Amino acid sequence: MVRIVDNDEEEWLPMSEQEEWSDVVPIPQDDGRNPVCPIAYTDEYREMTDYFRAIMAAGEVSQRAFELSGRVIDANAAHYTAWVYRKKLIIDLGLDIGEELRWVSEISGRHIKNYQLWHHRGALLPLLLDPQDVGRLSQEQRVLIPAIRDELRFVGEVIDNDSKNFHAWSHRQLVVRSYGLWDQEMAYVETQINQDVRNNSAWNQRYFVLTANQSTDDFVLTEDVADREIAYAVEKIKLAPNNESPWSYVIGLLVRHAPAMLYERLLPRINELAADKDYAVAVTSTPFYWSALVDIYEERAKTLDVDERGDVEAFASEACDSLAE
Predict the structure, then answer these.
(1) How big is the CA angle at 213 (ends 211 and 219), to the nearest 5 degrees?
(2) Where are the alpha helices (DSSP H) in the chain?
(3) Which domain of life is it from (predicted)?
């Protein structure tokens, strides 16, 4: 709380001087008898948390408790207990969840990489819109629902400002998975990669969209999809051969889900690229090409008997020498 002084400047008004809190006995933080290195809290923050501990201890469910939780969070967004209690208050008081998400958006600029903020959003979203309620709608219809549209817009703006914010990408995965927005998300991912082919977060999201709508054990990488993803990765490699992202993406995808296709389908494509006069120097000068060959030959050797591995081992050894050099 603040009060205005004569020069129109704001001054902190201690809670102990506010009539609204006169019935509350604050509970000081207990750092033990002889704390080695107590945190130097401001007087305002110390008093806020002392009163907040008191209302939590009393189990108070009130509008003033809710407002105080917001003050504590804005002063220290890592105060996870305040977030937990705030969610309880929202539910018990029957408050507007949409309004709460807007409040989180407002303070997010100051706390955009705070885990608790993103967890709070993720916990509230299904209370605002039950995923089961959209099950019969098409993906095109789902993204027009205000709750989904607003959430995608918010997280999209965060990613536009910081394309490597892993909290935002994780939250986007939660939204996509909860509401089944797979086709829509693949289009978004391609836009992100086109904007920045080196955005490894967007490449990771592509893998998520491709595989996460099925369990890892159930996902089957068909030949058609493998050929499509190999072609996509190769085209992006052409743009920046020394960019690790497409190499890691296609190698990781095939190693995990279709290792035989590394030798059968990927190797011819990247060797063709390495022989192309327009790309040969750039491709063979990057360690990611040679590293890919090592991975390919290693997986190939696993499918052969020991006495059949001579050529493959020789190729792998040559690739290792080139990689070392």
Answers:
(1) 50
(2) 43-57, 63-75, 80-93, 97-108, 115-128, 139-142, 146-161, 166-179, 182-195, 200-211, 223-239, 244-257, 260-261, 267-275, 280-284, 287-302, 310-324
(3) Eukaryota
For residues 86 and 61, what is the distance between their CA atoms, to the nearest angstrom?
Answer: 10
| CA 175 – CA 169 distance, rounded (Å) | 10
- Its sign, for the CA torsion 152, 157, 162, 163, is positive
Packing angle of the helix pair 115-128, 80-93 (nearest 10 deg): 20
Give the 3-state secondary structure of residue 60.
coil
Catalytic residues, by residue number, are 113
Q: 184 and 205 in contact (C-beta within 8 Å)?
A: no
Are the C-beta atoms of residues 245 and 199 closer than 8 Å to each other? yes
43-100 pLDDT, tens per residue?
999 999 999 999 999 999 999 999 999 999 999 999 999 999 999 999 999 999 999 9
Q: How many residues would you count in the chain?
A: 325
Provide the whole-model pTM.
Answer: 0.87
